[in-house]
Amino acid sequence: MTTGWRNIGIPKDELDTPALWVDLDKMERNIKRLATYFKEAGIAWRPHTKGIKVPAIAHKCIQAGAIGVTCAKLGEAEVMAAAGIQDILVANQVVGKQKVTRLVNLRQHADVMVAVDSMENAQEISRAATAFGVVVRVLVEVNSGMNRCGTEPGQPTVDLAMRVASLPGIHLAGLMAWEGHVVAMEDQEEKRRVCTESVKKLTDSADLCRKAGLRIDIVSCGGSGSYQITSHLPGVTESQTGGAVFTDVTYRKWGVPLEPSLFVLTTIVSRPSPTRAVCDAGHKTVDYHVACPEVVGYKGLSVTHPSAEHGTMDLPGEQVPFKVGDKIDLMVSYGDWTVYKHDYLYGVRRGIVEAEWPIWGRGALQ
User: What would the DSSP string read from start to end of 285-347?
Assistant: First the structure.
């Protein structure tokens, strides 16, 4: 991948398609609003970059007040550290000799911490950290109801935390959880109830750890689909909200009150009938699994029939004047499953390409 910059200064509509772009004014307003929100809530902001993947945007969040970033994989953390970001949480288990060796090497360049939910993994990190002469911060992950990774809340979490805290080369910094099972709930009262109960499993576990004599500074949870609840629950110290900086179709459905800022510029490549149009944005360009991308400027119109390279729209007749060669914008359906498909993200301000960012976190699966 080259750094490019060949498109700087051109009108957005002159980009070749399909092209992923972000409205800089809207994104920067979203970042400012999120930073203000968490400050007023009295907690720290550690935005998750699994769907952002562009270090320049992570830096914008930090400049606005974020304390660091959250990453899904060690490879993403290496990308962010290479871009100068220091405080990084890998909200995942880093397991195996190769990855743990990379982790302790990375610790010499950034203050990276990881989640653990087993003594075997904690001991592996401890041995490597001791051999390399570094100390790695860890958060014990708690299963707050998503039933993915994590220790069971309560005494099992305390027992693991006590053992982890005794290991050389490791600093127990706190606990974390992810209440991802609540984000798509449509009944808002039920969502608030389930989310509150889930986070209480985390915060109660933190209190039990403290009663056992452990210092628990970080209690981390929350995402874009739940931050409006988790940010105000007692005992939470930081939020991992990240995708809301883009606020796509899915996040709007999940109740995020921010401006959609992430789009795909696409070309109409076929208009075979008055009720059908086809663009060059299929599965390989934008996500269709969580939701369908919406056509900007045409209320109620979405691309609903994707194939690998094509997106087909059912049109309500001639009143939609699409013709072959026209360029249209799609509001991205779900950024987390779209950004990684592209080599570049174009930053656009008032219709002009201002930045051409390589998506350095793309493919960082290890």
Answer: TS--SS--PEETTSTT-B--EE-SS-EEEE--STTS---TT-EEEEE-S-GGGTGGG-SEEEE
pLDDT of the residue at 35: 98
Sole residue written with tokens 């998503």: 146
Find out whether 52 and 244 touch, Cβ atoms under 8 Å: no
DSSP state of 151: B
For residues 309 and 264, the answer to whether their CB atoms sit within 8 Å is no
Q: Which two tokens stand for residue 14?
A: 């002159």
What the chain holds in terms of domains, given with CATH numbers, is: 12-19+258-358 (2.40.37.20), 43-246 (3.20.20.10)
The alpha-helical segments, DSSP class H, found in the chain are 24-41, 55-64, 74-82, 97-106, 119-132, 155-165, 188-211, 227-230, 249-253
- Give the chain's residues under pLDDT 50: 1-2
pLDDT of residue 4: 57
DSSP 25-49: HHHHHHHHHHHHHHHHHT-EE--B-
Report helix, strand or coil for 83.
coil
